[in-house]
Amino acid sequence: xxxxxxxxxxxxxxxxxxxxxxxxxxxxxxxxxxxxxxxxxxxxxxxxxxxxxxxxxxxxxxxxxxxxxxxxxxxxxxxxxxxxxxxxxxxxxxxxxxxxxxxxxxxxxxxxxxxxxxxxxxxxxxxxxxxxxxxxxxxxxxxxxxxxxxxxxxxxxxxxxxxxxxxxxxxxxxxxxxxxxxxxxxxxxxxxxxxxxxxxxxxxxxxxxxxxxxxxxxxxxxxxxxxxxxxxxxxxxxxxxxxxxxxxxxxxxxxxxxxxxxxxxxxxxxxxxxxxxxxxxxxxxxxxxxxxxxxxxxxxxxxxxxxxxxxxxxxxxxxxxxxxxxxxxxxxxxxxxxxxxxxxxxxxxxxxxxxxxxxxxxxxxxxxxxxxxxxxxxxxxxxxxxxxxxxxxxxxxxxxxxxxxxxxxxxxxxxxxxxxxxxxxxxxxxxxxxxxxxxxxxxxxx
Amino acid sequence: xxxxxxxxxxxxxxxxxxxxxxxxxxxxxxxxxxxxxxxxxxxxxxxxxxxxxxxxxxxxxxxxxxxxxxxxxxxxxxxxxxxxxxxxxxxxxxxxxxxxxxxxxxxxxxxxxxxxxxxxxxxxxxxxxxxxxxxxxxxxxxxxxxxxxxxxxxxxxxxxxxxxxxxxxxxxxxxxxxxxxxxxxxxxxxxxxxxxxxxxxxxxxxxxxxxxxxxxxxxxx
Lengths: 446, 221
Hints:
The complex is a heterodimer. By secondary structure, chain A is of the alpha+beta class. Among the domains of chain A are: 2-49 and 315-442, no CATH class; 121-240, no CATH class. Chain A contains 14 helices and 13 strands. In chain A, the strands form two sheets. In chain A, strands 1, 4, 5, 6, 7, 8, 9, 10 and 12 form a nine-stranded mixed β-sheet that branches. Chain A has a four-stranded antiparallel β-sheet with strand order 11-3-2-13, sandwiched between helices. In chain A, a hairpin with a 2-residue loop joins strand 2 (63-81) and strand 3. In chain A, helix 2 packs across helix 12 (359-395). Chain B has a domain at 33-45 and 73-211: Rossmann fold (3-Layer(aba) Sandwich), CATH 3.40.50. The longest helix of chain B is centred in the last third of the chain and has 18 residues, at 174-191. The interface between A and B is medium-sized, with 28 and 30 residues.
């Protein structure tokens, strides 16, 4: 029976080529976008190096300070009573925020207060915002740098093509060593394979290259850089000042969900206990940790007060709504096309029913045909996505992000195709399967 | 074989009520070749459809092969039609996208018959109607008479006891019509298949065992 369905499905596709072409275009275009989107989501949130432990990480991306003062307001009511004016007044005292400062954490804050956060099994402090201009053979290169401690290489599992990460001792000694990205090594030394052991000049100082990391799949600023340097080699001003705000971030590693919750609570608790250097300027400190999705959501949707939870909810709501809308519109269009395609075949359906097909087998046949159509559209969409993906990666339009196909995306694509086929085919097929045989056969054309 | 007792069919809309069949009682014996005649709109096809269980009577009782079908649910009716009945339509109703042999196999698809067995049975049915050499052709490549022969092969492939033919020669010229009629007569004679045929052609009707005439939904002969 299946071979008969398959044979007929292929023949039916060739019957109305214009309809088939429109349907295939709609399906393949939608699937192409969905596949590209899946590849993007996978690149950004998938379990890829150096973020394979991302689910156990809590980031302290920024700290916030506020000056909160009490504000008193008076309300005066008046009314005329027995010909005389009577006045009544009420007083309200409210906290109001008069100024806010949000920035990355200062090294002073990290070093003095964040080394014993409850729930953390490991932690790292790093500064991701420095850039260097380098000149080589008259050509200017701009390198983004991340200053990191030794734990950074334990929490973020980078893959090294050559060499190694730096150790705690090397960081503590402020050793002038550097780790380069593959691309940076190529740009500076002409090749990444022989760069280890060579020297790189940054701000007039020589740094020995001790490792080369492989190209990353994503471009998150806290892991993606051209050069990685020991934290202790940063400008001494950055680590010696006693400012709570500065240029550092912290990442804490938990080993359970409870551990993550403890880290978040511990950070909030610490914020209340840390003495503020100048309470007249700022009298409240807020340390809100978040996971990868939270910091991504807040980056995309700058919501006030660093409210990660709200940002995540809004981000997910918008993303899911857009995805649903994106899938729903072509599905409705396909249902509409399918209704007219199927209605043309009412006489055939009538004959099949007369010869013993029951409604269920008609329903199955029509849905099967639609699944074949969508799978065909899926193959075209997959090929299109492959081409577009190659062009996107080649053009560097997404910066460091490398979109890739993998088994998960392939399985998702197949599932999307099947769901698309079944959903868009079910309604017209159901209507047709219930058609009265005599009325159906009266349609003379098959 | 087929028994209709006081069968009526009334089509009802909001404003009008049309009686297509009025209190018809007919008995068709096993192996009989019965023809139904009457002017257009007299209810011939409705009667055939009710006998074929593809339409329901408004009142009355239909018994086929001793089984009353009024209580059958749709799946059981479909199975019953598949095993006991074969249909031949005036407009052939072949599926143009399928080859001749695939068209003939159609009723067997809804049985648990293996693909090899289906091919064998369909080839035999085509041989019976003299079209074995056209198995791989498509309906569009056949003449009207050949199409109707394919339709007959499709009707007999499942070896049903009853064939219901709705003006099988209506769309054919007299020579082709006669060929089709000869095949039906041969099926009736050699295989003992019960055939009920609606026709406008008096000559064809005279070749059958019995003729009934309808007028305005009532049996007049």
